[in-house]
Amino acid sequence: MTDVIDGDAVAADIRTEIADCVETLTDAGVEPGLATVLMSDDPASETYVSMKQRDCEEVGIEGIHVEVDPEAPAEELYATIDELNADDAVHGILVQLPVPDHVDEREVLRRISPAKDVDGFHPENVGRLVAGNARFKPCTPHGVLKLLEAYDVETEGADAVVVGRSDIVGKPMANLLIQKAPQGNATVTVCHSRTDDLTSHTRNADIVIAAVGIPEFIDGSMIQEGATVIDVGVNRVEADDGEGTTLVGDVEYDSAADVAGAITPVPGGVGPMTRAMLLYNTVKAAGLQTDVDVELP
Ligand SMILES: NC(=O)c1ccc[n+]([C@@H]2O[C@H](COP(=O)([O-])OP(=O)(O)OC[C@H]3O[C@@H](n4cnc5c(N)ncnc54)[C@H](OP(=O)(O)O)[C@@H]3O)[C@@H](O)[C@H]2O)c1
Can 27-127 and 139-272 be said to share one CATH topology? Predict the structure, then answer.
């Protein structure tokens, strides 16, 4: 029997606990605030940002939204970040990526105060994570760890294969899984587009984490019987009936579910966890900045 890992349910539990953290903060006179910054007119980015604002509202975090004209000079975005860094009502800052081509993304990530960097992409926070002293774990890989924990998937001693080596998913995912820590202690292989014979790696894995960005790229023939399959991918494709579009992951769900011991669906797997862990990082940031003890889930 394959376990379907219910990210919606795990994320809902985490949001309930985060709402308690928000109450602890407000009782201590701190109203946690998350600023989202959008410099794009891409409808997908607009949707992501509005979902994040809605999530904040649900748990009682003050959402502050700033839009920068996508045609404006990069300095306008940098100045916005500087203002938010200096604003005591803002505990977390998230600049929705990607930024326009004329803006240096690395400079954007460096510019956000590491104490408010709730995405965990600032070089200081990346370094801390690698060193085993994370301040903010990036939301998607952190959400994956929470799913593994919720479903009692043992990582210690497990062979884990991460397919994808992006800075936002693959690399931090691998770095978290190798930590000498709970939900760590795995033996991790990172695969990418230059990997020779990908299947020879995935088929030996106890845990496969797919973050490739190619619809249904990994199928059941690439999975070991009983393995845990975590599908990070979100790809919009034409619907089978030719009517509109639908979302699929990087894993071919049906064939993988036939052999996997546990698997995340798309949607309803990793996606809701990414959103929940942003709220987690925001209350953590507010607690750290104000010296209020919050009991994080
Ligand atoms: N659910 C969520 O909350 C969430 C969050 C973030 C991302 N996502 C989704 O997760 C997916 C990955 O995102 P990302 O930002 O990590 O993507 P990305 O930056 O495009 O990275 C994709 C990775 O896949 C590797 N790759 C490409 N073709 C491959 C192949 N044929 N064999 C093996 N590896 C291959 C690439 O290798 P190279 O490095 O060699 O190019 C790269 O490392 C996307 O579908 C994205 O939409 C979901």
Answer: yes
- Encode pLDDT of 92-115 as tens digits: 999 999 999 999 999 999 999 999
Pairing assessment for the beta strands 245-248 and 235-238 based on DSSP bridges:
antiparallel
Mean pLDDT of 190-201: 98
The one catalytic residue among 119, 206, 231, 250: 119
Which residues have a Cβ under 8 Å from the Cβ of 289 and sit 6 or more positions away? 91, 115, 116
Cα gap 202→163, rounded to integer Å = 8
Q: Quick count: other Cβ atoms within 10 Å of Cβ 236?
A: 12
Task: List residues bridging with 63 in a β-sheet.
Answer: 34
Domain 27-127 in CATH 3.30.1300.30: no
How far does residue 174's CA lie from ligand 1's centre (Å)? Answer: 13
Query: Measured from the CB, is residue 170 less than 6 Å from ligand 1?
Result: yes
Q: Is 161 exposed, middle or buried (0-12, 13-18, 19+ CB in 10 A)?
A: buried
**271 touches ligand 1 (CB under 6 Å):** yes
**E strand or H helix that includes residue 235:** strand 235-238
Taking the C-alpha atoms of residue 186 and residue 176, their distance in angstroms, rounded to an integer, is: 9
Quickly name the fold that domain 139-272 has: Rossmann fold (3.40.50)
Known catalytic membership, residue 52? yes
Decide if 53 is catalytic. no
Name the residue ranges covered by the structural domains of the chain.
27-127, 139-272
What letter represents residue 286's amino acid? A
Our answer to whether residue 96 is catalytic in this structure is: yes
